[in-house]
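Example with several molecule types.
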Amino acid sequence: MVANDTDAALLAAQRGKPSPRLAGANLPPVGVQINLSQIAFSGKPILEDLSLTLTAGEHTCLLGPSGVGKTSILKSLAGLIPMAEGSSIQTTDDEPVVGRIAYMGQSDLLLPWASVLDNVLIGQKLKGERPNEGKAIELLKLVGLAANLADRPDTLSGGMRQRVALARTLMEDAPILLVDEPFSALDAITRHKLQALLCDLTRDRTVLMITHDPMEALRVADQIIVLCGQPVKAVKIEKLATAAPRDLGSPDISDRYDQIMSLLELDLRDMP
Amino acid sequence: MKRIFQISMTISGLLGLWALIVWLTDLPKFILPAPLQVLQKFVQRYPVILDNAATTLLEIILGLCFGILLGMSTALIVSLSRNLRQWILPVLIASQAVPVFAIAPLLVLWFDYGITSKVVMATLIIYFPVTVGFLDGLNRTSTDWQDLARIYQQGANSSALASMARLYWYIKVPFALPSLASGVRVATAVAPIGAVVGEWVGSSSGLGYLMLHANGRMQTDLMFASLLTLTVISITLYYLVDFLLKRAISWQQTEDQFT
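Resulting structure tokens for the full complex:
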């Protein structure tokens, strides 16, 4: 299983080279401005008057303690939960976000009865479109699973499963990508590789990624936003000079890390 | 192989116990015949027994087919419409609360002595576990998957009905299959009851008819032979269905190992 990890796309990603262009993935980047008047969780408001800006073609990482409403923000944006009155979503091209969003979650949500290839094609099937097998195979090659097209998900390792999920997400030519702690269940090395792969394959797309791991944010994000405080406010962390995916050794990274941690710890001290 | 060995050990153990009881108590043949006497009777009368067994088997299989089809359709309809659920669920429960024995004479009156009344009876018994199993499965599709499907389908330019149909076909129904399979297993195990009860109340052929006939004539050995034939049919049918279901949803077992 490990042999599959030494794939051309992965190596290219680790060297920071752009990967070969995906067929059909010729998307003008879209920026999004989200204003949420309120987010309530089972009737109790947890978040008020929050605005987030997702710069077109950038990776924005949302950090924050659990229960702060990160996933609710993502779900509001995806149209899965209704937004409170006074909230708005504005895009840079003035088109609605509905139908232009792809989502990837913490659990890979692979269909246990379907092959890897069929799992990647499920989005098109659900939409009633003709499944584009050629594109799916191309994407599976890019994530290093060319040899596993016919395999069932239960024969794959956790990292391979998340890579199938990544390919499935990329099948959508969606300019906006919502990613909710996709690698939190993986071991450190697999996570490290997949972060690089994600950065590499989602360049030029507007990505909003939720994570609770500051190191992950520092590795993949162009812009880091920390949600903290009472009431919750969004704090932007100063951008790093280098491009993602970053190695985590440099001094400015540890500087940002300390900054993020002090913001998050501030929250903990306030707790009863 | 081990399984077959275990089953045959259990069966021969029970037969041994049976023989021992007959030998110890020295009961007359018309109260409790010895296993060997029952076997003799079977060999002697097997054309009659098998002929009647064929009738019962046909009733069971037809009942299974109708019951499963009806049960699956009901579950689909109920899961599609929350309003309908309020109306259909009481009827569903009532269909189980009324004992089959109580309505068996009615069914024979309405559908005659032939196999129709028995098939209806078997269908009634099979219908409930299948409906409940499938409905349970359909209602338990993970919300994460429904959310993901919703995000996918938001971008599609097709009707709500078509989207719903695809959601069921590609996600909900496959996810419900293991639950449905449990329902079908229970149904297969109880299906013979429906058929035999029907035959007891009024019929001119079938194992139930043969048993009643033999009982009335103190042919206890023939009754036991019929009863054992019914048992063998039921067990074989159950394992056959179980095998087919496991083959059909082979992904479920491997999935279980990881969860």
